[in-house]
Amino acid sequence: MTLQQLRYAIIVAETGKITEAANKLYISQPSLTNSIHELEKEMNIVIFNRTNKGITVSKEGEIFLAYARQILEQVAILEDKFKRNDGGKKQFCVSTQHYSFAVNAFVDLIKEYGQNEYDFSLRETQTYEIIEDVAHMRSEIGILFLNDFNETVINKILKSYELVFHKMFVAKPHVFISRNHPLAEKAIITNTELEIYPYLSFEQGEHNSFYFSEEIFSVSERKKNIRVRDRATLFNLLIGLNGYTVCSGIIDKNLNGKDIIAIPLADENNMRIGYITHKKCMLSRLGISYLDSLKKYLQLNNTKTN
């Protein structure tokens, strides 16, 4: 097995086509095909499934390629330190619930490492997909929250996937509403006061259980429920319908707009916001840098609220 073979396999996975990958690598298609076959034979696995419609990465291949990316990342670190070059295209992926601080930290990462070539991904997605992304090493880091209600279920799933939750910040639940909402002048809001207004939440697909909700689950019945897929839609509906959602209280006016405010919610348990990683993976320099930025924004919010 060579570093070149690992690079070949990653390019094939990214393009999904041997011909396109060969053109990108400036080698012949037969040479690339033979190199991949030799790698699979040596490692005794099938990295790619071949069909008439093309190739796809196998489940075993996803794990193999995740390790391959880590190896190449470590090689890049060595080259940075001793050869004084940029180590090639930098790659990093994080999966997260819909948090503005996760976006801000991602922007910082690109500003620090995105001078030349890079291939970064920020996946704001459903809770179960975050877990699966990190479990299959598609993402190095996943960001989500635990509380007294969901902790037992989420931790059981994390354990089954060999994932670890690292707590970073304890947040008091807040209500996100429009600045013009009838409750906007309140210092604290109760669930009873929210009963007549539409409750907005991010839908969780086939795993649409309360345990996977990005918002605090309340024992109080919510009579008006609206589920959305993206942040912009949710905030537009908060303003247009006098709706509300329940989240960490960490708000960024640049991302969320000046028309959205956060007010503490009474009688709900705290959110423990953190990140998940795979037990078998070591954080890359990009991952470490991203977490440093993340902690900076969380500490800044903590300073503002104390």
UniProtKB/TrEMBL annotation:
Entry's Gene Ontology molecular function annotations: DNA binding; DNA-binding transcription factor activity
Domain annotation HTH lysR-type: ranges: 1-58
The keyword Transcription regulation is assigned to this record: yes
Transmembrane segments: none
GO cellular component: protein-DNA complex
CDD domains in the record: PBP2_LTTR_substrate
Domain of life: Bacteria
Gene3D superfamilies in the record: Periplasmic binding protein-like II (3.40.190.10), Winged helix-like DNA-binding domain superfamily/Winged helix DNA-binding domain (1.10.10.10)
Keyword Transcription regulation found: yes
UniProtKB keywords: DNA-binding, Transcription, Transcription regulation
Pfam family of the protein (one): HTH_1
Family: Belongs to the LysR transcriptional regulatory family.
Name used for this protein in its record: LysR family transcriptional regulator
